[in-house]
Structure formats: structure tokens, C-alpha cells
Fold each of these.
Amino acid sequence: MQSITVKAPGRINLIGEHTDYNNGFVLPAAIQKAATVTIEKRADTLVELKALDLNESISTLLEEIKPSEIHWANYIIGVIAQFQKKYNFPTGFSITLKSDIPIGAGLSSSAAIECAVAYALNELFAFGIDKMELALMAQKAEHEYAGVQCGIMDQFASLYGKKDHVVLLDCKTMEYQYFPLLLKDFTIVLFDTQIKHALASSEYNTRRLECEAGVAMIQFKFPQVNSLRDANLYMLNECVNSIAFPIVYNRCKYVIEEMERTLAATENLVANELAAFGKKMFATHKGLSTLYEVSCTELDALVDMVKNKEGVIGARMMGGGFGGCTINIVKKAELNTVIVNTIDAYKQQTGKDLVHYIVSIEDGLVVV
Ligand code: GLA
């Protein structure tokens, strides 16, 4: 094989936010927007990277792979570096990238690139690495080359998504189960604030540390607790004083509640209780906004605007936060009205134009 082209999708997450790095549950799905990567073997040891959408390219030598000053290139170089920890590339290669996943919208545009590159390199050079390992390598690239201590959800969803299904992933055991998403008269629409908060990655890493601080406090009395997944509200109340440590307390409370909520919501989905599912999405938003504090004025405004609207059964901010999209479950018959009214209200309240995407749920990475 001399070349390969793969398409790796972005993702939505129905519920289970900021739970993955706490060993909890998430319920994502892959979507129609994707990154497409072509990799061609070369006769020399050059590594050439081209971003078609930006009309930019850089090149380096296989022997000189290191973090780049070019932001987008790091997602690719970060993955190449993971391979180089264990494997040798016999030749260099040229990578061409294009993507229609909006950047910074919380739809995992970076995970899609990482997964596409990881999968394509593995196939092209026949390293024989399994898909879960590739997801972990892509996650590592994000940790080491983008500086975000992310969980595994985004990379997992991009590789393992299944058309018209959501997937419940247990981030402690990495066991997963697909559920058909039977929305019937309803559909999913995302409202994109187009806000890319500059603090997003540093605050993300801080949240992770705050959760770890909570675990360390709980461990004094309950040494069997290795992550918030093993904890419950009783343990939290016993070990973390909410007056002395309000931030740690609130972060842990949100995560513990969100893990329970995600499992209960999945049961709602299976039982076709969409209204109950939607209520849990609103509860998640409240937790993310008031306890976990990863929302922003615009995301809160968008959720408030649709809250009591005819046909809207659930809405919340989605992904890491501080900007990006809200995810909304809306009755098809009311969809146009809801979209038009929300665009108007958002413009009035914030002076900004609101972008929306109607989601279709697709397969994870495919070779094209
Ligand atoms: C980002 C991270 C994920 C996850 C979400 C929040 O998308 O990459 O691992 O933590 O935020 O749920």
C-alpha cells in the first residue's frame, strides 16, 4: 500500500460531561462533520504536512519530529511522536488534511485529526496496533502536544461511533455498549456560540486537578477510592468540608451526580422516555454552570432561551465548555420556529450571530 485516505468524524455527547477523566460514563455519538486525511509514503525521510483549508504546509524530517510553532501541525506531529516511541517508520510520508468540523465548537475537531492520522499511519505501515490503543495514542498526543489533559471520550467516539447509535462508554473499564438513538419525532440541533474561550484548556486542566484534590481528601477515610467513580455523596460529605473547600466540594458533587445521571438517562433512552432524558440534560447544564463552572454567559443564555419553548425537551452546553455549542433535542414540527426564535433572541441579547447545525449520527472512522 502506497497511500490511504480516511475520514474521522467529530462527535456530540448526549450526557456525561467531564466524567471521562474521572473514570465515569459518557454517551457520545459520531456526527456527519469529519476530518479527511490522506497519507502517502515517500522515498525519502521527509514528513510533509498540508492543511488544505488553511492553504498552509510545513515539513520536517522523521528524525527531527518535535513540537511545532504551528498550532494545527501539533495534532499531527503529536501522533507521529507517539508511534515513534515504539515503532520505526521505514520511510517518510506526506499528509494532507481537510476538515469541515468547526474549530473550537466543542465538536472534537482536534480528536478527529489525531484519530485519522493514527489510524491511517497504522494501516499504511502495517504496525498492527488495535483500535483502542490508537484511541489512547491519539489522547496522549493531545496531552503532550496540545497541553490539554483530556479524557478518552472524543478519540473513542471518533473511532467507535456507529450510525444512528449512541455509545455508552465506561471510562474505568473501557467497556462499551451501543444503543439505537430512536428520536422519532425529535431531532438534535446544536447552537454554536462561536466563542472560543482563551482559558478553556488551562481551566480544563484545573478542573481535573480539583477533582484529584477531592479524591485525595476522600482517600483519607476511604482508601479504596481511586477516582470519583468510586466515590458517592456520602463519602464526599464525610471528607470534604463544603465551607472550607467549596470549590473542590462543588466540582466533586457535580461529577458524582453526573455519573449517576448518565446511567439513569441511558435507561430513559432505552425505555423511550425522551422527556425524562431531556430533563436530565437541563440538570446537567445547571451542574456544569453552577457547580463545575465551565459554562459562560452565552451558553447559559442559549439554554435559558429554549428552556420553556414548545417542542424543546432538553438542552445543555456540550463538551469542555467556556464556549462552543449547546446540544438541544427538539420536536421536528417545531424545529424551524425554535431555530428562528433562538437566532433572533441571541442576536438581541448578545449582539452576535448564532450558527446552528442539525446533527445526523454517522459511523466512526472509515477508510475512503
Ligand atoms: C473535552 C475533552 C473530553 C471530555 C469533555 C468534557 O471534549 O476532550 O475528554 O472531558 O471535554 O466532557
Amino acid sequence: MFASVVLDIPTQSLDAAFTYAVPAEIEELDLIGRAVVVPFGPRRALGFVLDVFGEEDPRASELNPTKIKEIFEVASQSFFDSDGAACAQFMAHYYIAPLSSCVRLFTPPGGVPKVVQRKGAWVLEQPVIGEVDDRWATLGPKAEGFVPRKGSYKQEAVLAAVRKGDVRVAELTAEFGAVNSALSALEKKGVVRVENRRRMRGVSDASESSVFRVDIEKPQLNEEQQNALDVITAAFNRRSGEVVLVDGVTGSGKTEVYLRIIEEVLNQGKNAIVLVPEISLTPQTVARFRGRFGNQVAVMHSRMSQGERYDQWDFIRSGAARVVVGARSALFTPLPNVGAIIIDEEHEGSYKQDSQPRYHARDIACWQARRKGAVVVLGSATPSLEALHACEANAHWHQVTLKNRANQKPLPKIAVVDMAHEFNVGHKSMFSRPLIEALKNELSAGRKAVLMLNQRGFAKFLLCRDCGFVPTCDSCSTSLTYHENGGKIVCHHCGHTELAPAACSKCGSPYLKKFGAGTQRVEAELKALISGFGEDFSDVAIIRMDADTTKTKGAHQKLLEEFVQASRAVLLGTQMIAKGLDFDDVTLVGVINADTTLHLPDYRAGERTFDLIEQVAGRAGRADLPGRVIVQTYDATVPAIQAAKNYDRSLLLEDELPKRELLGYPPYVRMANILVWGEDESQVKAAAQELYIQLDQALGLLDREEVTVLPATPCVLSKLKKMHRWHIVLSCSPEYDLPGLLEPFFRSRKTSDSVRVSIDVDPQNLL
Ligand code: ADP
Ligand code: ZN
Ligand code: ZN
């Protein structure tokens, strides 16, 4: 018997699996998915078994029996099955990523052994993360009627405690001091038993927090929800990997639809995965699933400690978990019998991993579902243009619509304030007059507001305070980015550069503002504004939520609890507040600067702006009190803003789709963004330019009609974490096998330590 083994060494070229002979004594084991120790040249290495095959397999006849080496030892339980192995291989190919990095996605967090060299010998080192046991004392078979010998007080005390119920040895020790000899005396007589019980880390602190409201009652589905459920159920019953897009406004009861389909899936003996964007994976979300499915729910996300994640992983592997709620990594947990994969807020950028392998959870979910015959449910109030396009183009994609909020409340009215107008009439504050008035009204009435500062700190751009004009690139229709250094404006797509103008090229105004304010500054101005309202506003809580204030574990949660418990408050935050919050007494939502995403130098800028406004607007007026939304912008007439204001996606699509088709952007093309990065600017530049030439020479890119390639240019984020970054952007028709074309080139390419190259297939942005 033979095994194909991928070595646990992540390099792009060492991607293939190697074949090893399986020694007779381990042939009986189910080897797929296990870590094994194998000889590799003069050393030993850890690898993962992807597949096993016998002498009769055609692959066996190609082997040279004198060269084939044996697996040295088995190092772990099985981390994945043959579906997992196939998925990893698909990802390695499609994303042109090291196979070992794809396999690694399937291993338990921190739970993989290592092979290390010690005093000249290769040894297997087991991971430090693993199960933790508690010792419990419980009554033994001879307990009844047993009375300890007179004077053995410890035994008496311990026994009395155990008679009240099973108890941890640690608790006995805390109460009575050292109890070990008393316990072992009792154990010898068969009166008490001491056993190790598995402890699950972190579950209690991740569970329901009392300040959040959870409906455990099952509501009667409304007609729209019932229709959605019927479509999904039918797709699930066909077991052919179909996809249903639930296009439902905020608060339309999408989550309730998910809960019902999961119920059906469980009833049919299958299991379900629910993906939620990392940031909205709050106790509030988890509590809704636990409320319905109790302790069959496992949770997996990156804010948990390694130990907690290991325990959840192991709980899933044990077969006891039926529903996994988690961030994108939940796709790789060992949940058997997957019948449904649900992706909430499908449009979210965070479903794309931004390190190797740069996979998109939606695409991997669809791949897995096809293989397993499961249904994929995508939910969003603002579906991605990719998903909308796929519903039109593919027979196995279906779209269902929820137009109304589940509680029949209207969606909040969205008012757009023209900030150029505010400026022109002499109102220079970053808070417009309508926003100030609304804020004062709502706070006076004892209600709460959410203010969003749309922040992409890195990308500054010029904006005319008189007319709202922003310089854009003629050939790419993206905003030009302002560079402090040299006072230039640059297109980071095609490289076009010009000097920053002194006056607006549209209206001639000299008031060109360099856009990009931090939350701290806004917080300070907000405090000043509210204290200006008068003394009786001194109790208003101002809670700032951004990358800085949410760094520590649980901070995000604590800030939200503070907001819930305050009698009146303003929550000021970045994009992270736009999603998932469900608070009854929020009646006002303000978007301080819609322009930041609108002018992001990226083709998705309009789509993102629309998404963000609709999402954050959804936080207002969710319960009995009506809500309203105020969006501040210098560009009130653009389709993205108008579409959001009117809750009319067609206004966005009519504008966006023809542009994307004409300029060659997704969903009409497939792209690959080849990033070149390193510490030395001139080396990076030279390497990027050389790579461009090599790519053309090797693949004839410039002559290929199916592929468009743009010359190497600096990225928008030309310097990130001390690294200089250049890129080469490729695009082709969506059907064309771009990875198939690029993969051989990149696998055989020599890598360098000073300048690195990574490939982003289907990039979420080109920054
Ligand atoms: P979404 O996920 O679309 O934002 P939710 O599922 O969170 O919407 O539903 C919004 C609110 O409406 C929740 O409080 C939920 O309990 C409630 N809800 C959902 N479906 C119904 C229904 N059929 N009848 C009454 N209330 C419902
Ligand atoms: Zn350009
Ligand atoms: Zn102007």
C-alpha cells in the first residue's frame, strides 16, 4: 500500500504530494488526514496523508520501487477526510497557493505535532495544545451506608461533599485543603471514584450575556419567509449543490429562515455550517443559535484562544456538534454529513482571506456543497454583484426576496445632506445642521444614536469643499490618491500620475480638502458638540468603537454592553458598527462621511458605499420607535448614494454594470492580482517589472486575446507594514482557466527572500 503525503513545509514550488510506502503494521489504520513522519532527503519531516492506494492502482505502476521510502511513524489522529483532501488540492490549484498551507486550514488550532532536530536526532514533538481534563470525585459502588472511621475528619468532609453531587477535586482542595490521601483511602474502599472528565474551555464566557435580548420562541413565518424556506428546502432535497441567495432587507427575518432550514437539515440527519462575518460573531448571534439548537452548537472564530478553539474543533470531530457557527475558517472543521452551508452577509469583504491561501469562503462553500450535495444559502440586504450575476447566469443559483421587515415596521427614512452646501452657507463643522438637530432631538427624548465614521485611514484623496469634485483617472474611473510626499495625485490602477492641483479643476475653488479624519478627532468634536447642548446632556455616554478601542479580547463586547445599558448614548464607530447590531432604542443613524468609500481608488467603491449605507441604516428603528438616517456627503447625486437613499438597488446596477462591463471588471471578468513586495523599494520595482517581462515571455501574455495584463505599477497601499508593494493585474473572461495558465509558471519560478511574490486570484480589491 502507498500513501501520497504533502509535507508540512509551505513553499510554492514544493507543492506536489510525495508517495511513500505504508508499512504493514499501520495498513489497518485509516490514514487519510493523519500527520505522519516521513524521511525527506537526509532529514525527517512531518506530512499529511492525502490519499492511499494499493498495488493495483495505476499510480503504483509508475513508481520506482528502489526509490520509494517508507512512512516512519503515524503522528496524529485524522484531521480531515477525502473530501477535505480534495478541497485542499482544489484550493492549492485555484489560488496558486502552497498545498501545505491549504491542508493546514483543516488542522486543529495549535494541535499539530512537529518534527524537530534535537542533539542530532529527529524527534516528534507533540503539541502543547490539547485536551484538558479535570479530576472529578463521584460516589463509588460501596458508598451506600458507608461511615468513615471515627476521627477521620477529612474523609467525612469529603464524603459529605460528594454525597451532595459530583464535585471537582480542585473544589474539594479549595475547601478542605489537601484531600488526596483522604480521596485515595475512600477510593480503595470503593466508596468514591475519581475520574478525569474533559473540560471545554471558554464556553461559559462565550455564552449568553444577559443584557442581550434573544427570542427563543419560534415565530410564525410570514409569507416571504415561507417562500424563501420552500425554495431552500427544495434545493436541499435535490442534494445537488444548489445555491439560494436570500436577498432580504435588514430585519426581514433572514436569520429566522436560516434557523428553519437548519432544523429541516438536522431532521433529515444532516448537519449545518453557518458563516458569519468575524465582527458580527457576537454572543448575541451565538445565543440565537444556541437558543434554538442548544449544546449541539459549536462556535469557531479567531478571537477565541487556541485552547478554546481546539476544544470546539474536538467537539465537532467527536460527532456531537450538529451546527457550527463561525467565521470563514468554520468551513474546514471536521463536521461530517454537511447538508447546508449558510453564509450570512454574503457581500462582506472579510470572507476573503488576505493571506495565503487567499480563498473566498463563498466560492469554497459552493465547491464543497457541489461535492457533498449540500445546499448553500447566501443571505444579504446588499448582495454582491457577483452573487446577483450568478443568479442570472446559472440555472442552479436561485434568488428569493424579502422586501419587508419581519415585524412590519417600515425601513428608516434616509436623508442625504449635501456637505458642500453646508460649507457654502458658512457651516464648517463636520456635523451638518440636520445631523446636529436630529442628535439633539433624539438625545433629549432619551434615545440613542449610532454615528459611523467611514474610515479607510490610508487612502487620502482631494475633495473640493465647494462643489464636491474629486479628481479621478480618465482611463480607470477610480479616484486619484493624494500623496503627501511630493504632493502628487496618482492612479493606482494604471499608474497615471499628476501634480496635485492648487484649485478645483471643475469650479476653480481653492478649497481643496485632503480627506481622511480619525475617529479620535471626531470623538473630541462630538463631545464638544454635545456639551454645547447644555448641562443636562452631561449624562450622555459617548462610546467609541474602532480598531484601537477593540484591540483586547472581549473589548468589542464590553463596549456594546455599555451602549445597551446606558440610558442615552451615542455609539461612534468605524465600519465595524454597521453590521448585526440589534438594539431597540436606536432611532438615529448618522453617516459622517459617505465619501471615504465612495472615492476609494477601487472599482468596487460605489458598491461598497451603497452596501455600507444600507447596512448601517438597518440599525435604526428596528423595534417600535421609528428610525431615521442622515447621510453626509459632498456628492449627493451619485447613483450609489441615490440608490441607498431610495432603497433602490436598480439605480446602482444601472450605473455600475455597464461601467464594469466596459472597463473590464468583475463580474464580467475574472482577475488575478500579482503582488510583489519587499523592504527595498528599488528591488521591488525592478522585480515587478522583470516579472512582467518574464510572464509575457513564458506565457505570451501580451499576444493572448483571452487575457489582459496591465504593466507593473505601485499599489495604492504602496507601503504597508514597512513593505513596498507593486502589482501586476491580469483579467480574463470568467470561464477562462487563468489559474491553469499561471500555475506552472509560478510553481517553477525561483523564489527570493528579499522580494516576495504572491498571487491573489479573484481579489476583493486592488489596493
Ligand atoms: P435579519 O437577519 O434579516 O436582519 P432577523 O432574523 O434578525 O432579520 O429578524 C429581525 C427581527 O424580527 C428579529 O427580532 C426576529 O426575531 C424577528 N422576526 C423574524 N421573523 C419573524 C416573524 N415571522 N414574525 C415576527 N418576528 C419575526
Ligand atoms: Zn488609471
Ligand atoms: Zn470645485
Amino acid sequence: MRLLVCGGAGFIGSAFVRVRLVEHGDEVVVLDKLTYAGRRENLDGLDVALIEAGIEDAAAVARAMEGVDAVVNFAAETHVDRSIAQPDAFVTTHAVGTWVLLEEARRRAVRFVQISTDEVYGSIAQGSFTEHSPLAPSSPYSATKAGADLLVASYFHTYALETVICRGSNNYGPRQYPEKLIPLMVLNALAADRLPVYGDGMQVRNWLHVDDFARAIGVALAHGRPGEAYNVGGPDECPNLQVVQRILELTGRDESLIEYVTDRPGHDRRYSLGSQKIAALGWEAQVRFADGLAQTVAWYVDNAWWWEPIRSGDYRAYYQRQYGRALG
Ligand code: NAD
Ligand code: TYD
């Protein structure tokens, strides 16, 4: 297959590209704006063509889609805290960008896979969301992602474009930008910096290894029914505080580094996805959270070359804005 992977220089997109090249022998074109989160290094050693452009750039999208069999769209602004501080780019990329991609896909009648998130359903106290659960997003991040999902669905209903939506739960693994919980806590623990836990730390996330998500997306790409959405949840859920405690153990630090800070506004308490529908297509998670977390910590320990330029670059300004007051 010849695939256009939008946002393929990011955390999950690059894991997906790796799986497609190694396990499927696909030909891959990556279209990526290379924002703070997109990195050429994520594609090191992979034989891909990289086009540096935004998905909202119609001319670049038209060129990139030439001759492809399918489009998989990961391109997004992905951090909830940044969406709370400054939602602008979330609206542009998720609403306008997704629409530009859909228009070109419609013109060429190309199969379109949209990568979405459990956060479009909002918070759930007990049980798990199904694909029929109503969308009830809480943050500008999840609201704009939900908007993108609805646009995608409209192109199926209105124009009969072959669309599939994949909604993943919280991913973790190598190459995740250290604004997210797990890499942030790992790098802070390694540096013996304080670990900022929001609120009481009892919020629950459903952890999915990035390679499991990448393979699920491959299954949806090959076998997903047009017009359908597929939830992809991880095999284990865990309260944030327990995740942080485990990271402290794995890095040989003690709990005195934990600092409880003011909670995130509108913070979703728990996410949980039922994955029966994607399982019926033949997908199953391979990585349990305990093993995957230990492997992920080991990856960050062994790959300082990857994160040191981030920690000493723009990320410092972001960290100061986000945590400076709370952590003094
Ligand atoms: P990421 O922030 O690591 O990567 C996003 C990528 O998109 C980067 O390479 C960035 O440069 C690129 N990008 C951003 N705006 C763009 C634009 N306008 N045009 C082209 N490229 C642009 O994010 P990620 O964690 O890899 O997430 C990828 C996708 O998976 C997103 O759509 C996200 O909503 C979804 N998702 C993420 C998670 C998670 O836990 N990280 C869970 C479920 C779903
Ligand atoms: P995050 O990685 O931002 O993912 P999401 O908000 O998309 O689930 O956060 C995961 C959980 O960790 C969430 O409940 C917020 C919490 N969290 C902290 O307690 N402290 C932090 O510094 C960060 C970044 C997140």
C-alpha cells in the first residue's frame, strides 16, 4: 500500500509508520508541520518521504495525496493543558485541517482513517464507553477532536467517502513528548526534580502501549467498516498517583519528590473504553501496563540523546508557564 500518514513525525504517528514499514512493507509519505511535538528524529532510520507542511495547507495536501491508497490522520495538537492555556491551534488543526484533508480525500475517493481519542466521550465514573456513547468532551482539546470526528462522519454520510475513526485511550511508550504524564514524571524523577500531581492524583486513565495502538489502527485500516468508529482501550487502568509511585520505584527515587499541585480545570476523572468491536476484527492488546511502563522507563534512561534537546529547548519556557507558580 502507499499511505499518506499525517502527523507521522509525532509520538504515535511515527510508531505507526515503523509498524507499517517493518511488518507490512508499505510505502509511506509523511505530511507533518513539525510543531514543537513533531520531530524528524522520530523517523530516523525509516525509509519515508517527509513533507513539512500543515494539514490546513490545501496545496501541500493535494500534492501529498497524489497516488496514495489511503490517508491516516494523526496530525493534531495533543496536550490538554496547552488547549486550556491557548486553544487557537487546536481549532485550526482539528477543524480546518481535518476538513482540508477530507476535501482532498473526497476529490480522489481515498480511504480515510481519522485518529481520535477516548476523551471525546468525556469522563465515566464506572464501566466503559462503547462506540454508541454520546460525545461529551470537556476540554478545548477533546471538543475540537470531537468536532473533527463529526466532520469525518459527515463525509461518509454526505459524500460516501470511505471513513473509519479509531479512538484510542491514553498511550505511552518511547518518543512521547515530555509534557504528558508518564515521560514528564520519568524525566523529572531522573533529574530528582519534583513531580507535580494534579489534585488528589486519584484520576484514572486506561493505559495503552503505543505499539498496540499502532497495530489496532492497521487492523481498522484494513478491515474497518466504512462509516464506523472503533474504540481501542488498553488492558489496564491505573490511578495517576500509582503510576507516579511506580515510576519513582523504577527510577530509584522516593516519594518525597511528589508535589500535589492545583488541579487542572475541568479535569476528567476517569476514562475507560470497551474494545470489543475492534477485537472482533482480530485485534488484541499485547502489552500489559506493568511491563510496558518498565520498558518505557528503560527507553528514556537509555535515550537521553532524544530528550535532552527537548528539556533544554522551548520546553523549559512551557514548563515554567505551566508549573512555575505551583512548584515555586
Ligand atoms: P504528538 O503531539 O506526539 O504528535 C502530533 C503530530 O502532529 C506532531 O508530529 C506534529 O508536528 C503534527 N502536527 C500538529 N499540527 C499539525 C498540522 N496542523 N499539520 C500537520 N501536522 C501537524 O501526538 P500523539 O500523541 O502522537 O497523537 C497523535 C494522534 O493520536 C492525535 O490525533 C491524538 O489526538 C491521538 N491520540 C493520542 C493519544 C495519546 O495518549 N497521546 C490517545 C488517543 C489518541
Ligand atoms: P496527560 O498525560 O496530560 O493526558 P490526558 O490529560 O490526555 O489524559 O495526563 C494524564 C493524567 O495525568 C491526567 O489525569 C492529568 C494528570 N497529570 C498530572 O497529574 N500532572 C501532570 O503534570 C500532567 C502532565 C498530567
